[in-house]
Amino acid sequence: xxxxxxxxxxxxxxxxxxxxxxxxxxxxxxxxxxxxxxxxxxxxxxxxxxxxxxxxxxxxxxxxxxxxxxxxxxxxxxxxxxxxxxxxxxxxxxxxxxxxxxxxxxxxxxxxxxxxxxxxxxxxxxxxxxxxxxxxxxxxxxxxxxxxxxxxxxxxxxxxxxxxxxxxxxxxxxxxxxxxxxxxxxxxxxxxxxxxxxxxxxxxxxxxxxxxxxxxxxxxxxxxxxxxxxxxxxxxxxxxxxxxxxxxxxxxxxxxxxxxxxxxxxxxxxxxxxxxxxxxxxxxxxxxxxxxxxxxxxxxxxxxxxxxxxxxxxxxxxxxxxxxxxxxxxxxxxxxxxxxxxxxxxxxxxxxxxxxxxxxxxxxxxxxxxxxxxxxxxxxxxxxxxxxxxxxxxxxxxxxxxxxxxxxxxxxxxxxxxxxxxx
Length: 423
Ligand SMILES: [Zn+2]
Known about the structure:
This protein has 423 residues and is an alpha/beta fold. The chain folds into 2 domains: 31-183, Galactose-binding domain-like (Jelly Rolls), CATH 2.60.120.260; 196-421, TIM Barrel (Alpha-Beta Barrel). 26% of the residues lie in helices and 31% in strands. It has 9 helices and 21 strands. It has helices at residues 14-30, 214-227, 237-241, 253-261, 281-299, 315-324, 358-371, 393-406, 413-421; strands spanning 51-56, 59-66, 75-83, 87-92, 95-96, 101-111, 115-123, 128-136, 139-151, 156-162, 169-183, 204-210, 232-235, 265-268, 305-307, 328-330, 350-351, 374-379, 381-382, 390-391, 409-410. Strands 12, 13, 14, 17, 18 and 21 form a 6-stranded parallel β-sheet that branches. A 5-stranded antiparallel β-sheet has the order 2-3-11-6-9. Helix 2 runs parallel beside helix 8 (393-406). The structure holds zinc ion.
């Protein structure tokens, strides 16, 4: 099976800006030149030293060093004059990283078009993994800071983070920083394949839609209804409470209630989709407890399942969630759940990306049929196009058909936990 290591898709645009504001002071005060792991981080020396021009596809990129800088006197610009497909970006020299370690990345950008932030991870096996960190809105006039905190896996070797442009327009970046934040304990190693005797009583599949996208409501859940499947919507409550603030990209409260009335489950995915690791008790209260209170009063029923934003969690976050959510907590570590390692407060989910093939899904389903495992599929958007964390409705329907053809029972995540907990 292909285990994809991926980040849960954060809410675009406004929540990203939220993160920027939230992390601005800590990043700018803590980073000094001595602990920045990026060589020539503001492109001040050479032409510039340790930076390379990268890209793929058919487009006409022009890579320039600009005198308009956020830091020092130079910055990096890519201008795409003609665009058919692919992307173009400046890349710093790969940074060697320590496994199981938390890092903080930040940089400033300006752009005439929406862009994104991606990470290229190299593992000790030499395999590369490309993950999407976020979408960034147009910022033609002002330098905007972005920052991300992430944890390397136990076989990480090197990483690169860049701002690809994938349309006609320009993007300018400056003042990159990557610092090691703290060492986290290594994850439990994956258990060996389990024999059938070690499985749950039957294989199960659950279908989760994270972040509460309106296009999932309009194009994803109706397909579940066609197949008679019940899924779950993991709601970021600030988007539901303030739909206008988020350009109505997310489900409003009426739509959340409607899903619940149709038999789908509603889970809590925090208030504003921030990384919960390192938050104080008051902040955890507003990100973990308040969404529960809001959803319970909206739906008139208990909300006891939590999904961590960006899959970021540690012992403090897990303990806090455990105190308030009786059913469990989900991450997105790209594994199936098997009996010998099952932890209801560390449920594995398998992210479905735009690039996930039907064959990969079928292979994963056949592995859980062999082991009587529980497979949680993590979806985000259902819409045309090829954004990493979106899927077209036609592909989604084909995947649901593959699930139906497999004969494996589909139940909402929280029902699956209740079912297998006693086994
Ligand atoms: Zn999310």
